[in-house]
Amino acid sequence: MCGLIGLISNQKQDEVLDAMLEVLDYRGPDDCGGLIHQSGERFVHLGQNRLAIQDTSDNGHQPFVSDCGQYVLVFNGEVYNFKAIRVELEALGQAFVSGSDTEVLLYAYKQWGIKCIDKFIGMFVFAMLDKSENNLTLVRDRAGVKPLYYYDDNGEFAFASELKSFHHLPSFSKQLNKSVLPYYFQFGYIPAPHTIFENTFKLEAGYYLQYDLLSNTYENIQYWDVEEYYLKEKTKNSEQQIMEDLEDLLTDAVNLRMVSDVPVGVFLSGGYDSTLVTALLAQDKSRQLHTFTIGFEDKKYNEAEHAKVVSQHFKTKHTEYYVSNQDMLEKIKSLPFYYDEPFADSSSIPTMIVAELAKKDATVALSADGGDETFCGYSKYFMLQRFESTFNSSFKKGSINKLLNLFSEKQAERVNSWLPKKRQSTNIQDKYMKFKRAMGSESLSEMFCNASSYVDKQDVSRFLKLDSNLFNKYQFNQDLSFMDNMMLNDYKTFMVDDVLTKVDRACMSNSLEGREPLLDHRIIEFMARVPIDIKYKNKQGKHLLRQILYKHIPKELVDKPKAGFQIPLVDWMLKDLKSLVNKHLNLSLIHI
Fold this sequence. Notes:
With 592 residues, this protein is α+β, with helices and mostly antiparallel strands. The protein has three domains: 2-224, Glutamine Phosphoribosylpyrophosphate, subunit 1, domain 1, CATH 3.60.20; 228-375 and 484-554, HUPs (Rossmann fold); 385-481, no CATH class. Strand 8 and strand 9 (156-160) form a beta hairpin. Helix 11 crosses helix 20 (494-508). The radius of gyration is 24 Å and the shape is globular.
């Protein structure tokens, strides 16, 4: 896990290269390297900050140059199956000088070109300079676990793991990209390929960018699209066979992510996803698992007790830390530096704290993100699915809306508190508000959009004085079911630009590598072809995942309402953060 940067310009800029690297030193504090290559009248600058994971010796230093000198690589991430690929390359006559996956990646590219990506199981962003062909290729992994930004303006092209590196380019201007503000206010993040700045973009997941150094032009090419797998014919295998095949895939995915030359731990919340990762890893009795969780004194937000029960069952070495409000409030000061652009997911704060906790004992931590999008876990899916048919009946739709308008969000929370604990929903006010907006929609895609947004798009439209039809970012495929469309869209948008952005910055701000076994591309390719009535069964999501998990732990130890990392944000804004809110809502400071 590292930070990488690059710059293509008409002049050699050593100091700019150094400055772009220095600002990302926390992403890779173990080593730092740079290289400048001249191609005609253009200078290609490449740099990397290294967090040493595989082969921690100097043999893994980057930029990594091939034995013939033709290829130069900077790389962020991991190719987990690199040992198998190395064996294949050695059979073809390739010699190696290190034990790193970096060297394997480079020679895989030399042997197979861009098609080498098809062999990789991992999370990665890399830049490959081919001196002979005068081109530079930038690649982002299929799921988008690792980030890559690029800047193109006035004949200067740059790329980096984070936006802040571009601030050191003499030509860069912090000119706001106002067209993306509706997306931010609606969803709390800025979706790819956009960023908050003009002339600056995110390379999308499953894409590579090829830059021609002679013509100074580039092209974005998609090499993998999860939608293709949703469109394939659904498997005809029995549920039992599907479950067995899935468990084999999951076991291989988690075990591959234990390959490391440094200590590895697991983020454990006590929920289904992180418990499953822990359960599968615990089958190997030769290793002592180290698990990490944080708790909250407010029982409404606390999941640490569940995590402790799971850790005791699997006999892990467990570390927990109870977070105070002051701990979290202190983190707020650093958020703008690490996240670089507006980002409204408040769970980034506790995520940064659990990453800080894990870093004390590990350099790598496995996380269980992607489970909801892959296995059908979000409660909004089940609720919206039940009301899909109302769009064929104006009477039903009108009746439901009249009923919903009889209750406020606070009244809904009061009713929720009367239910048996196992049936209570967390964060009910927010969910009820989103559901009311969703039921007022004109189409299924708009219903899903409204159920996924923080603020009604009509309110955003009035505030920004823009046509609200410009910013529905969800695209539904008419050949797919409503449920498949919802999971597909979340996988390609919310998961990448919110969840994975949150985890990457939280981990890397602590020089910790986060690994995502449930985002192994083989798992989503498999699950996309599983019929929806097997994913969502008996009015429960994650059916397959639950059944596999129950083989390893009594169901009563894990069956509980879904919570997630929640914080008392409203209370803070009315009390502890009131002065900060007033400061930033000062009309004299608003320039939109």
